[in-house]
Amino acid sequence: MAPPPSETRWRTAREAIDPPLYGTLSTPVVGDHIYVAGLADPYFEPDDDQLVLAALDRASGDPVWTLAFDGGLSGAPALVDSTLVVGGYDGRLSGVSPDGRRRWRLGLDGRSGTPTPYGDRVYVADGAGSLHAVTADGERLWRVHWGLPFDRLSERLLGDADPRAVGAPAVDERGVYATVASSDGASDGVVLLAYDHRGNRRWRRSFRGAANRRVHGPTVADGTVYAVVGDAVVALGAADGSDRWRFATGYRTPGPVATDGDRLYVGAKNLYALDAATGEERWRVVNEAVQTTLGWRRGLPYVARPAVADGAVHLRAGAFDATTGARLWGDDADAWVAADDYFDDPFDHRPSVKPVATAEALYLAHAIDGVVRLG
Amino acid sequence: MTRRRRVLGSLGAAAALSLAGCGEIADVGDGGEACPPYDPIRTDRTAWTNRYGGAANTATAAAEGGPGNEPTAEWRFPIETHVGYHTPVVADGTVYVHDLDERLWAVDAETGDAVWRRGLELGWLGPGLGDETLVVPLEAGLVGLDAADGSDRWRALEDLPTEIGGASPLVADGAVFVPLGVSLYALDLATGEIRWRFPTGLPSESMPAVADGTISFAGDDTYVYALDAADGTERWRTKTDARIEASVTVAGELVLAATEAGTVYALDRKTGGVRWTSRLPQGPEAVATDGSRVYLLTDDRLTALAVANGHRCWRNAGVSTRYLSGVAVCDGQVYTLHRDGLVILDAASGDERGVVVETGLLKAGPAVAGGALYAISRDELVRYR
What we know:
heterodimer, A: mainly beta, five-stranded antiparallel beta sheet, four-stranded antiparallel beta sheet, 35 strands, 5% helix, B: mainly beta, five-stranded mixed beta sheet
């Protein structure tokens, strides 16, 4: 059930949280409370800055607790067996109890990505090229390395100064899927890997095309894996990695994809709905933002992962009909951009709003407004 | 609209002769069909009113519009600028050129003398011309000028900045078609008023082509669209494999478009159905077609494909793109720019027929009109005939 249009139940500013919720806001996680983390942005200084994980009351938006991470955060929270697992910028994975106490820490091999829950465990990738399976109690079940020899060698020689971008893994009953940015020094690419739940590699596919600064984790549904490669969305058979289809968006830095089984939704400047089986465009919502040499005008591109629920596709502070693309309610919540030319640098291809939809409400992590509940 | 009919007689004989040469050079690997005989569609165009010639971007001129077999520089008109150049437009004995900065000239085609000069805040794109109206991109939006004296007729879309490498306006059928911002706009040529807008949400550097009341349009969006030129209604759309930066052209019953990935698409003009595709090593910088061949200029070569089936008829690695250099086709000859000067190739065989040596770098052009060829050499507009 979509929340009623433009009814803001509460709004909690970044500064209303103590310590303040700085950094790039993670997509809210809905549990007993609303959990949001501030993740490292390009301005993050590990020696000077602190990033926090915050729990907000679902009904009022009031802060319930906050937990500060001196080493910073780079992986958004995931909820598994009542434990919140967050990824450290310092390469440590942390388990946090529902009342905000740190339960455990586990060292990864590099800067942590966002964990993905599966049963009683999470899968998490790190910037040094490892994928880990970790229980809700912080026990590592297995670890594999993506095994790109060139990268491992350069890491050994040059250290971890510029770790590779990692996205959240995708999971289904067959196993876990991860994307990694690759470079052979001459050209960029994206490697898509599939493992079973015991850490055995099932298949590996590599694609040419820039992975962009933040590689997106893949999405898996109904036996198909969807990944963003360069400006395109590719669909592969989950069982063997075989080609299904490819859709070039024409926008160099598309966001991650979401699916409801029938269609695939991707913010690639415009919002596109693609037929999940064929990759054909079913509809688009035109984004009127214009990029000039000075920055964006008239808005910012759609690059957030859309939140799909009950026949509605939620993006920014609004929703579209999943079948037709017609706007159901709401708006782009970017009056602050439209009011003035907006320079690229702070935007940096990050979503300005990350939505999550539940049966009761739409929760937003909003770069300017903080955390917002609609409906 | 350019009137087209098949040329019979003398050119037919030339086409028959060219068949043998073609077969020797052609690298036919995908199906074994020979490159069909060179049989260009005749054009009667003797003006060069848009970036790529006429409304269909064919960059083709009638024999009487061309510079002949042994052109030489006739006059030079100085354009000193630190910004850059564009391909001039030419009609009714006048050449229009600007410095992408602040000065726009109308130059007498016969004498090379300035007819008038205007100061404007110019954008980095070339003009379009029709119905005695010169449409010039400004830093933001467009201005419509009286071509006779350079006075303002209208201004439009002034809230949209023109970008480096964007598409120049196309003037056709009493309208101006220009991709700007994230839409294709159709403006009334007389008033500058917006007739319609077709938003894709992504920018376009590709010049659209107009033929028989239909506009074919492409861009970063990766589709080729056919729209009703009068009201912007979509007739069809065809998905391609990558962004399209090169101009769209029309050859007979086909719409031709080449993607950044180097795939050339020939689409049915009525349905958008894919008739054939062909591969280039990369996306082309310039495209021209005489209806028999489509000539595609990439970084280091000029490739001629058969319009009928997409087979490669020849390629010439002796040419390379220079700045904004294009390709022009006239009377069985292909003109393009090379580091040594103006290169003339045989359209049927791709063989070099001559080079007009130019010591200054040729930077923009060619435009072929009124019995002459125009290009920008170093800091001068040059007329060859």
